[in-house]
Amino acid sequence: MDLTAANHRIPLSDGNSIPVIGLGTYSEPKQTSKGSCKTSVKMAIDVGYRHIDGAYIYRNEDEVGEAIREKIAEGRVKREDIFYCGKLWATHFEPERVRPYLEKTLKTLQLDYVDLYIIEMPMAFKPGDEFYPKDEYGNWLYHNSNLCATWEALEACKDAGLVKSLGVSNFNRRQLELILNKPGLKYKPVSNQVECHPYFTQRKLLEFCQQHDIVIVAYSPLGTSRNPLWVNVSIPPLLKDELLNSLGKKYNKTAAQVALRFNIQRRIVVIPKSFNPKRIKENFQIFDFSLTEEEMKSIEALNKDVRLVDLLLWSDHPEYPFHEEY
After folding, report:
1. Catalytic: which of 26, 49, 58, 113?
2. Residue 77 within a domain
3. Which of the residues 70, 95, 281, 292 could staple to 153 if both were Cys, CB 3.0 to 4.6 A apart?
4. Helix, strand counts (H, E) of the chain
5. 58 is catalytic
């Protein structure tokens, strides 16, 4: 494994490359104090992170952009050192809405381009500026997805220089094949961002993606918050796992560092979210040890094939991705 703290990019199929660890920036807007995202991104860049994962819908891209621009102004990094991933939300899948929504991200970040722009999930909602549209009875307002038409609009954004690479998130095999087999496909997805950790290893999806040169980016690589509104809390907390902790003792590392190392040794990109200075540092310290083949197998055996982030509130959507095996 040739990845180091100073050089940890892996290649993408379009000739670009992606840092194997990034800082996730999603946080509940109501529970996050103003400025904490900016402080965390600046600190992450100082620690050595070069990959920041965000989205317009997180409502903090202004802070992310400020942090990046301040670090560039300080001479700490150049724009090309930073890899920023933004996301197209479900209410903007209509082709004519794609570019204006991406431009909102660019305007908020005050950057000229994003490095990766991904379809956040395959399920379309009623087009409009309401992020979570519902009718008067509280029912979700869905919309028919035409993922191929959305993809063509994204390809035009890449041609216009607004984005370097294109990808998807929460897509299953069938939905990926829909794009891969699209007549006249110009740019194939370079990545699929999905939940992936030792309790949910995504073996079959990983195999399929690797066959098609698609990098898996793991969200919730350390498990996730225990919010029962959108998280399956029947699974025990990953970081209390006995095996991960005993391997942590062996290497003088935390269970979290072992879980992250497990994924990067599988050539999976990890984007742990933290606004905690100590954890931001710790999560990055995964380049000075490696797990043996035996240890990798024993961590793989922890797989429970159960999702934490199952998005069940939308399970009646015609494009809900998780009814299928992978």
Report:
1. 58
2. yes
3. 95
4. 10, 10
5. yes
